[in-house]
């Protein structure tokens, strides 16, 4: 009889590195590692402007994302998107030039 994964964990998921990270499909506990890893991958591809979609909701995920961004040395600046870019449901991030750095 074949083994069956009952945990529901599909394993690693490939995310396109295109400058837009939509967090809707991730659990809040994944965000802490996902955001820095995604930004490092963007830097490796020469992408310096990133849009992180965290949704509007209660604002808890937005606050978590902003706290993470505030600790990353690769982040030059970040701000909520304008009305056309997702408003307060998305954050625009500008990354510093240079190689990716580990969170400090």
CATH topology: Ribosomal Protein S8, Chain: A, domain 1
The Cα radius of gyration reads 15 Å
Number of domains: 1
Mind describing the biggest β-sheet?
4 strands, mixed
Stretches where pLDDT is under 50 for at least 5 consecutive residues are: none
Q: Distance between the terminal alpha carbons, to the nearest Å? A: 48 Å
Strand content: 15-25%
Q: Provide mean pLDDT, rounded.
A: 86
Named CATH architecture: 2-Layer Sandwich
The helix tally amounts to: 2
CATH top level label: Alpha Beta
Q: What is the N-to-C order of secondary-structure elements (H for helix, E for strand)? A: EHEHEE
Structural class: alpha+beta
Coarse morphology: globular
The level of helicity is 25-40%
Structure, described:
This protein has 104 residues and is of the alpha+beta class. The protein has a single domain, classed as Ribosomal Protein S8, Chain: A, domain 1 (2-Layer Sandwich), CATH 3.30.1370. The chain contains two helices and four strands, in the order βαβαββ. It has a four-stranded mixed sheet, covered by helices on one side. α1 links the parallel β1 (20-22) and β2. α1 (28-44) crosses α2. The longest helix has 17 residues, at 28-44. The mean pLDDT is 86.
Q: Topology, pairings included?
A:
Blueprint: E1 20-22, H1 28-44, E2 49-53, H2 60-71, E3 75-80, E4 90-95
Parallel strand pairs: 1-2
Antiparallel strand pairs: 2-4, 3-4
Helix pairs in contact: 1-2
């Amino acid at each position: 009889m074949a083994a069956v994964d009952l945990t529901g964990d599909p394993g690693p998921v490939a995310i396109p590195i295109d400058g837009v990270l939509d967090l809707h499909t991730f659990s809040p506990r994944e965000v802490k590692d996902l955001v820095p890893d995604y930004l490092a991958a963007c830097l490796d591809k020469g992408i310096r402007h990133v849009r992180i979609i965290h949704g509007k909701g209660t604002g808890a995920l937005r606050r978590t994302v902003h706290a993470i961004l505030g600790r990353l040395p690769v982040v030059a600046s970040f701000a909520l998107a304008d009305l056309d870019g997702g408003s307060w449901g998305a954050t625009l991030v500008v990354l510093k030039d240079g190689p990716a750095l580990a969170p400090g």
